Amino acid sequence: MSQELRAVEWTGTGLALIDQTALPHRTETVDVHDVDGLVDAIRRLVVRGAPAIGAAGAYGVAIALLQGEREGWTEAEVRAAVARIREARPTAVNLMVCVDRVMTRFGKGLDAVLEEAAAVQREDVEANRAMAAFGADWLLKRVGEDRPLRILTHCNTGALATAGWGTALGVVRELHARGRVEVVYADETRPLLQGSRLTAWELVQEGIPHYVQVDGAAAGTILRGQVDAAVVGADRIAANGDTANKVGTVGVALACADAGIPFLVAAPTTTVDLATPDGDAIHIELRGEDEVLEWAGVRTAPAASRGHNPAFDVTPGRLVTGLVTERGVLEVSAGELPGERLK
Ligand code: MRU
């Protein structure tokens, strides 16, 4: 990709978000100038991916301040608006962490808030570049340096899902830059198709060979020996290494454990939540039933059926072979726990 993609961009008066619901067929941006618009964009997944919603939430504090100024809000009203942004989606801890970080500058005014939000965005890109190098080194050492790798990934973790470059897809991009990617299996990622719509689109932009496969194919592809390693992102990682990520991830991890291949989680430390002891304490977002009962707006399930639509699942730390952050790799299943090593 010649110019690095920015899913979240501050325009001076608001946010320009790449509309991730329209990709890959239309490349459009959504301009956000008010709190309702931002909350709606986060809930509808116009902007999505844990670090990207963290960056959007960080700038959301500025949006609340500016709207408050225009509409004569009290400080309490601005703070309540920021709290609504913070709670727009519950699972990705980056949203809360980034909003809270920027709120430490709230009393210093708009410029200080914008400066902190820009730092959140800049540091996320830096973290991604660092974890890409650590993750690529670790995988090559673990799987073998002699041939290009076949990598499976789930959901979208690229530039679109972050402030830039990507987490798990950032590791893939780094391996590709080193000439070490044979092929990527991109899981389709039901029900909103982040894999087939977004990951495949990014892989096409990067010229990385790939197959899109249905989520149900993942375990079989792994157990038939067609994959050397799986690399995924995360929305929240508990102190014991339990990892919440897009629904379907735990099945990939189980298959990797059975096949004896590495399951690598790539995430910045802003995704690690040391205050959450284990996966049971992670709030899993339950989304609308229609997302699974319909396909492209047409009802596919019987009218009487109910839908169960958890957006995420939790992979136990015992299945996480490696967790790569900007600080290096922890071998979680071997006992290197985030709660002890990332304090
Ligand atoms: O519902 P989404 O699309 O926001 O879910 C995103 C994921 O699950 C990603 O894997 C995760 O946020 C990591 S993005 C670098």
From TrEMBL:
Q: What family is this protein classified in?
A: Belongs to the EIF-2B alpha/beta/delta subunits family. MtnA subfamily.
Q: Which NCBIfam families match?
A: eIF-2B_rel, PRK05720.1, salvage_mtnA
The domain of life for this entry's organism is: Bacteria
Q: Which UniProt keywords apply?
A: Amino-acid biosynthesis, Isomerase, Methionine biosynthesis
Query: What biological function has been recorded for the protein in this entry?
Result: Catalyzes the interconversion of methylthioribose-1-phosphate (MTR-1-P) into methylthioribulose-1-phosphate (MTRu-1-P).
Q: In which pathway does it act?
A: Amino-acid biosynthesis; L-methionine biosynthesis via salvage pathway; L-methionine from S-methyl-5-thio-alpha-D-ribose 1-phosphate: step 1/6
Q: Which GO terms describe its molecular function?
A: S-methyl-5-thioribose-1-phosphate isomerase activity
This protein's record includes keyword Amino-acid biosynthesis: yes
Classification via InterPro entries: IF-2B-related, IF-M1Pi, IF_2B-like_C, Initiation_fac_2B_a/b/d, M1Pi_N, NagB/RpiA_transferase-like
Gene Ontology process terms (BP): L-methionine salvage from methylthioadenosine
Q: By what name is this protein known?
A: Methylthioribose-1-phosphate isomerase
Catalytic activity from the UniProt record: 5-(methylsulfanyl)-alpha-D-ribose 1-phosphate = 5-(methylsulfanyl)-D-ribulose 1-phosphate
